[in-house]
Amino acid sequence: MTAILGIALHSAWSRRGTLALVLLSVALSSFLLLGVERLRQDVRQNFAQSVSGTDLIVGARGGSLQLLLYAVFRVGGATNNVRLSSLEEVAKHRAVAWMVPLSLGDSHRGFPVLATTTGYFEHFRWGDRQPLQFAAGRAFSGDLDGLYEVVLGAEVAERLGYRLGDPLTLSHGGGEMPGAEHADKPFSVIGILQRTGTPVDRTLHISLQAMEAIHLDWVAGVPIPGQRISAEQARAADLTPKQVTAALIGLKNRAAVFSVQRDVADFEAEPLMAVLPGVALDELWDVVGAAERALLAMSAMVAVVSLAGLVAVVLAGLNERRRELAVLRAVGAAPRHVLLMLALEGALVTLAGVLLGIALLALAIAALAPWLQVHYGIGLTLAAPSATQWTLLGAVLAAGLLASLVPGWRAYRLSLADGLSPRA
What we know:
Elements: H1 2-14, H2 16-48, E1 56-60, H3 64-72, E2 82-83, H4 84-91, E3 96-108, E4 111-116, H5 119-123, E5 125-126, E6 130-131, E7 134-137, E8 149-152, H6 154-160, E9 167-168, E10 187-193, E11 204-207, H7 208-214, E12 218-219, E13 222-223, H8 231-235, E14 243-244, E15 246-251, H9 257-265, E16 272-275, H10 277-288, H11 290-318, H12 322-330, H13 335-376, H14 387-413, H15 416-420
Parallel strand pairs: 4-11, 8-10
Antiparallel strand pairs: 1-15, 1-16, 2-14, 3-4, 3-15, 5-6, 7-10, 8-11, 9-10, 12-13
């Protein structure tokens, strides 16, 4: 066995140029397979951690995915708002630790505006229960003196070029209709959040009182004709919000989550619902997860093509190696030895390609992880291969061994006379 292995290594070395290309092909296919699987796992983890530390999301009764989309991802809109007084009653539940109301509906140059309280910056968590951090400035004060203060997500500030102290105006709804801009009540950038890789990066944050102030002279989604309330006049008005879109709720003990969820569903004053963010995120991932499966299938096809290239190269080289194989037969090598030698050669090339693919993936993650985290919010982790990745590697190795048996079987069937007297 040792002699056959030595012969296989020397034979492969004599054709190192051709086999190096095959090895690189197998390495790239392994790199893609493992890379897509690692990216899939880490993106799913990041997706699931868009909101962390929140036990329930409460809103008007409807679909759980719809509530998750507009409360967490700022996509779509609520079918109905809920009374703030109802949410305050829920917050008095003995198991509730904190409640943060959210009000959505306005925008700024395509980015959503979220009205909330200062508790949002205190209680909101993302990733592995990481708090929001400020790259510059501070949170809005939440009082009348800081009524027109706005805190920007990292992507908003970067793409629109805003800095602390810059003025901006918000638009009603998506800002599509003429005259939708609240130009008479400009805001000032008071803070810019650090990048999180979550929808927070694409959001402008204002106080609930500010949301009320910019809509004092609006009704049913349009300005009231002939009535204009200036920014200063709005400060003197009653800016206590009556309705909001949803609320984030944290519990004193997570064991009470289902009890609180039932109590919210049974709330008599108003039809409400409470969803568990983790469960809703898993449901949403099942809907959008087809893309990851398609990427994995494409990577598997790349691996198949690479292994087919291995078979083609070894088969193509058989005609040139017929004398070599015949000499081996002449000095006493049995046909099974020839089969074993070629199978070992293919297995070694496949193994070397897989190891090179693992090394390339480790280097790529080490080099690109910080950049992807900063620019796209994708946190890639440099870790040992998972069980799924080991399964993929085993499948590539097994396929490489099987692929090498094809030329080995053909060489096995070559006769001694055919090897010594090859056809022209």
